[in-house]
Amino acid sequence: MHEAGPSSWRNPWIRWSVVSLVTLTVLSVLVGFVWLPSVHGDFTAQGLWASICRAAGVPSTWGGTSPAGAANVPQATNVVLERSMVRAAGSTAVGRGATLALNCTMCHGAQGMSGSSAPNLAGQYPEVVIKQLEDYKAGKRASPIMEALAKNLSERDIADLAAYYAYLPKARTAPTTYDESLPALVRVGAPLRNIAPCISCHGGVDQKLGAPWIEGMPKDYLVAQLLAFRKGERRNDSQAQMRNVVRAMTDAEIDEVSAFYARKASAGER
Question: What are the transmembrane regions (predicted)?
C-alpha cells in the first residue's frame, strides 16, 4: 500500500512563505495607513476607512455627516466630483460659453492658450474647470482676480464655460507616454516618500476624475501651484491629495517636473 506523504503545510518552505506574506501584508498596512499619514502635519486619525478614502481622494462619509474629530478641520472644497460633469454639452452651451470667455482672454488667451504664466484652458477637462470656478466662487481657492470674476457666475455660466474650453483642441500639447524619457517622479513617483507618479493621475497614461490636464502648461504656473500646495497656501485639493504629494518634494524636483510638463508645449507643435 502506498503511504501518503506529509501535507504541504508541514513543508517548512511553504509554511515560512505564508508567514512571511502575512507579515509583509501587515507591515505594509501599518506603514501605508498609519505611519506615513501620521507624519503629515494636517493628519487626524479617523480610522482605516477614512485613511483609505483619503488616499483615494473621495469623501469618507455621505449624506452630510462628518466623522468624529473632523469638525475642526477646514473643508478643502465644497465640490463633489461626479461623472455627469464630463458629459459633452450641446453646441448652444459651447457658443454661450465662448461669449462668456471673452472676459477671460486677457489672461487665458483668445483660444484658451495663455501667453503669460496663466494656465492654458484649451481642451481642459470640463469637471476641472467646473471645480476650480466653484472653488474660486466659494473662496476655497484664493485669487483676487478669479474670485471677483467667479462670484457672479451662475451654475449654468460655469457649465457653459467648462463646455467651451473642453471643446477647444489641446493645441501645442502631446500626451505623456512611456515611450519617452520621463523624470522619475513623473514615471514612478517615490513610494518610500509617499509620492505618487504624476502620470497616474494627470493624463496620458491615465486620468483621475478632477485631475487637470497639465501637458504644455507654463512652467512658472506649475512651479507656483506646487509651491503653494507645499506651503499650504493652496488648500482646495480634495482630501489633501496634492499637499500630501508635494510636501515631500524638493525645490529641484518641483522645477524638474514643471520643466518637463512645460516642454510638452513645444513637443505638440512638431
Answer: 13-36
In a domain, 5, yes or no: no
Q: 193 and 162 share a domain?
A: no
C-alpha cell at 203: 493624463
For residue 92, give the C-alpha cell: 448652444
Which residue, 115, 136, 167, sits at the end of a domain?
Answer: 167
Amino acid at 250: T
The whole domain housing 115 covers 83-167
Residue 190 β-bridge partners: 195
> What is the count of structural domains for the chain?
3
Confidence tier at 1 by pLDDT (50, 70, 90) = very low
Bridge-based pairing state of the strands 202-203 and 206-207: antiparallel
- Do the domain assignments include residue 113? yes
pTM over 0.85: no
Residue 176 pLDDT grade (very low, low, confident, very high; cuts 50, 70, 90): confident
Mean pLDDT of 122-127: 94
> Is the Cβ–Cβ distance between 123 and 107 less than 8 Å?
no
